[in-house]
Write a structure and sequence with these properties.
The protein starts with 5 loop residues before the first strand and ends with a strand. It contains three helices and 18 strands. By secondary structure, the protein is mainly beta. The protein has a single domain, classed as Jelly Rolls (Sandwich). Strands 1, 4, 6, 7, 9, 14, 15, 16 and 18 form a nine-stranded mixed β-sheet that branches. The protein has a seven-stranded antiparallel β-sheet with strand order 5-8-17-10-11-12-13.
Length: 222
């Protein structure tokens, strides 16, 4: 783990990326934890910088409802990587990444349920990583209407109390999520809804705190 939290925003091919719409200039610079805390839009959580044993990271506190900290980066396709730490507390740890964020109620997200990583119950075990598209496709609707398609187990099972590395690869409607450097995606889905671009954020679910470090966003021109 690096000694400080940062977000690196980088173009895959150039610093200036031209889309079909307006020109988007992507700055190749790190954003430290204080920038996340002070400048990003925070929703329903207190967000702070924590330094523990010389390691800095962003911490969301625990509260009712979902929480979000996001920035209006024009992200369509590309990759998002982050180190995430949840906890092994039943129904109290939902931690992940939001993308194509329009506002605090309209976004896509992929998140982890650490308390299900090593669950011996077979039903819980396959509910370890989840895709959602708010507000039209929350997890309840997807589980009821399309069981087993938008949530999966994470294999091999991570330590639910440890840092976990999550990498998202977004190509059009194709969304793949890789955990802890595994070459095979833990989750591979077709995105729902009509959003094709928007901001990027850090997300926690109902009653959940969360720790985040080393966020890297790599937009790619379509």
């Amino acid at each position: 783990m690096r000694s400080s939290v940062r977000m690196v925003v980088a173009s895959v091919s150039a610093v200036i990326v031209t889309y079909a719409g307006p020109r988007v200039v992507v700055a190749q610079r790190p954003v430290d934890a204080q920038t996340v805390v002070q400048q990003w839009t925070k929703v329903n959580r207190r967000v702070a910088v924590v330094d523990s044993a010389g390691r800095g990271f962003v911490r969301f506190d625990e509260a009712s409802g979902m929480g979000l900290a996001w920035t209006p980066l024009d992200f369509a396709d590309g990759e998002i990587e982050v180190d995430i730490r949840g906890r092994d507390v039943m129904q109290r740890s939902f931690v992940g990444v939001a993308f194509h964020v329009v506002n605090d109620t309209a976004f896509d997200a992929v998140y982890l349920r650490p308390f299900n990583f090593r669950a011996t119950d077979s039903t819980r075990h396959v509910h370890a990583i989840q895709y959602i598209s708010q507000p039209s496709y929350p997890w309840e609707r997807l589980r009821g209407e399309r069981p087993g398609r938008y949530e999966q187990p994470v294999l091999p099972e991570p330590n639910p109390n440890a840092w976990v590395h999550l990498r998202l690869v977004v190509r059009g409607a194709d969304v793949a999520a890789f955990v802890n450097g595994n070459a095979s995606p833990a989750l591979h889905v077709q995105a729902l809804g009509e959003r094709t671009r928007g901001g990027v954020g850090l997300w926690v679910g109902e009653g959940s705190p969360g720790d985040f470090a080393n966020l890297v966003v790599r937009p790619q021109a379509r």
